[in-house]
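Z., the sequence and structure:
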Amino acid sequence: MIASTSPPYDLFISYAGQDYAWVAGYLRPALGLPAERIITEEEFQPGAAVVSEFERAVESSRYTLLILSPDYLADPWSNFGDTLVAQVGVDADRDRFIPLLLRSCELPLHIESRVSLDCTNPAEAATQLARLRDLLHRPEPPPEHIACPYPGMLPFTETQSGAFYGRDKEISAMLRYLRGQRFLVVVGPSGAGKSSLVHAGLLPALRQSSYWPHDSWHICTMRPGEHPIRLLAETLGGGLDHLAATITALLVTHAPAVRLLLVVDQGEEIFTLNTPARQTRFLTLLQALRDDPRCALILTLRADFYADLTAGPLGPLDPTQRLTVAPPQGAALHQAIQQPAADLQVYVEDDLVQRLLADAADEPGVLPLLQETLALLWERMQHRLLALYSYQQLDSGGHGGLAVALAAKADATWNSLPPPRQIIARRLFLRLVQFGEGRADTRRRQPIIALRAQTDDPTLFDATLRDLTANRLVTVGGDDAGSDKTVDIAHEVLIAGWPRLKGWLAASREAELTRRRLEDKAAEWVRLGRGDGGLLDSSEMPEAVKWLAGPDAAALGYDEALAALVARSQAAIQQAAAEREAARRRELDQANALATEKSRLFDVQACAAAQQRRLAHRLAVALIGTLGLFTLAVGLAFWANRLTQEAQALTAQVSRQLRAAQAQTLAARANAELDNDPERSLLLAVEAISVTLRLSEPVVPQAEDALHAALGR
């Protein structure tokens, strides 16, 4: 056993390897002990017996601190160490053994019986370690200022290349490519890291590469902007009419360089900010540079503009001239997160790394958001530790720190837009959300054409979409064949984690659902040829007319096809109504003609009966007067009475026929009003039934049919 009145170490720290980041990044800086006053298993002598090294560390230290966690208790050597510490403490008859509980676990009895420091709650860890500093007679260490190595939402620059990790494979491929070829298009979605790869990855590697003599490359970089031709002239330092002479002068000025590398970053600006004529002129100049054997050209380009590029003077391109860049994943992304901090002796908890990897979830535009989140975490760094606890505390809503970074960026972008473009941006986000219908809302990728409204100013719309894309809130995609470009929200977490968007969704969900339903009908009408197929009927028209006339139509926008569908449907409904009215009038005219004919027949029959009565009366008078015979008079009176009864019967028959005609007329009117006024139709049908029924006469079949039809409505 080693005996010493003045131990060389103040503290022996025993811990599991999984807890290294917390020990190195939080515990040791919080204690403020000089490095030479602490011993850990890392300082054990190589080749020595582990048992002997444990014994030496315990006996050479004033105190032994055991960092207890499930991982520690599962390590057999750690178990041996805490047993040894306990034994030495008993032998020396002093309390040299301090348990520190880092994560909850079931403790052995000989540890549980001692007073421990409880750091299971990160919020209380500082207080617990202050007690340990008091025991060691150490003051609280002053705070350190360590510059953040993460660029946030901005791309890495060449001066930040020391903090750029995770792209070794792509950088090596680009260097090999430049040995044999001189034109390369770096293609990928927004936020994939194209600019960072070229500026912080390729350019520093090119300057240091052994493939070429030192300083043999002169590198120029530019972004096209709205005046790419003028910027190209300024970048090359000469006129563009004689490019060969300009390149010669440039290389002479920067001797010993013999090669020129021109990097055109954000190549999509060629197409988004310039007229077709200016696009063609600029691309033609790039083609001329490409033809000069002293020049190499690298162009970074969003994937959705690749078809535009290949259709111009630089096309067609060989597949080998394209490098597709995807966001780093797996080990590469792990390195990009952890290594910049490690270079500054800052430690990232592995649990935090895993959480960030899970939240990133291979999203195409998430890389800048991840860097922004790490920058936010840097502000919350505990001594030299980036902890999962800090990430969780970024957002009390439970959506994660990534959501906080994204929401902050979204708010800043929104506030930077003028009011007319804010209206467009709001509508874009609403259209890009798929409503969950009882589940969580999700993203809804849409073609650009489906996001434009009839009333949009094309210039304002394009500028708004460009800003949202540049700020990594949405991504624009499309295949190389030049099909319709599509737009998608950059990350699912924006839907649940951006309060402003959540407010829009709550306020406009029903109105947006109505818009989608109406525009789906308009799209079907267009698919059927904009004719009579797919028109709105009289039950659908009120909703469409009301929506188009209301404030939601102005706020949410609508397609020209919807307005055209409503106008065409309204015309068709009015035409159908006019045709029904014409049919009703024809039926009424026919019924009136029938009634007139019946009335004429009644008049004829009534006139005949009256003539028969008059004739019978004259005959009776003549016979009585002539013959004077009472019996003959009686007979003639009987005959006259019979003729009168026949005339009355004929009159009753004509009356019945007239009532039947009236009932048929009312039934026809009831049928005519069936669609326009169902209530009036029912009243007319009831009256048609009553005309004959009130005199106990048979119901006219047409009246009965009309009543059934009216009741069916």
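The radius of gyration is 47 Å. Residues 89-93 have pLDDT under 50 and may be disordered.

Let me know what you think.
H.
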